[in-house]
Write a structure and sequence with these properties.
single chain, mainly alpha
Length: about 150
């Protein structure tokens, strides 16, 4: 039943997308940082850059919220696009996801990079959906969006 195997990831992707997109129209003042550990090893800590600010490398919090929500939702659809054989679109999505990962605020960098890595892995490993890996990687990004975007 191939349609049943694709229907579940589609429903999950739609749910995750809806969760990611809720509340991204304006920033919330005094928002809390991501749940990423404060004592990350020095090798995992990104170099100071424009992304060090509260909006990352985005001009406004609203722009950051919109782009991060859009790309997080797109990340959940990568494995589905792979299943449909859309290779040109896959390369474009992967490039956009990587570019966004570089621009997110430092408080979200590690979580967003993990989401990117898991989603890209899902291009060749369709079990990313059924194993819960994608959902687990999406959770801290969705939490950041909920805490920082209203």
């Amino acid at each position: 039943m191939t349609s049943k195997n694709i229907a579940r990831p589609l429903a999950l992707a739609a749910l995750l997308g809806a969760l990611a997109l809720t509340g991204c129209s304006a920033p919330q003042a005094g928002s809390a940082p991501s749940s990423a550990p404060a004592t990350a090893p020095a090798s995992a800590t990104p170099s100071p850059s424009a992304a060090s600010g509260p909006n990352g490398d985005f001009a406004t919090a609203a722009e950051a919220c919109a782009k991060i929500s859009e790309q997080a939702t797109g990340a959940t659809l990568l494995p589905l696009s792979a299943a449909q054989g859309k290779t040109a679109e896959l390369k474009q999505y992967e490039a956009e996801l990587a570019a966004t990962a570089e621009r997110v605020p430092d408080s979200l960098k590690a979580d967003f990079a993990k989401l990117k890595d898991v989603a890209v892995a899902g291009v060749t490993d369709q079990t990313v959906f059924s194993s819960g890996k994608l959902q687990a990687a999406m959770a801290p990004v969705t939490e950041w969006i909920s805490a920082n975007c209203k």
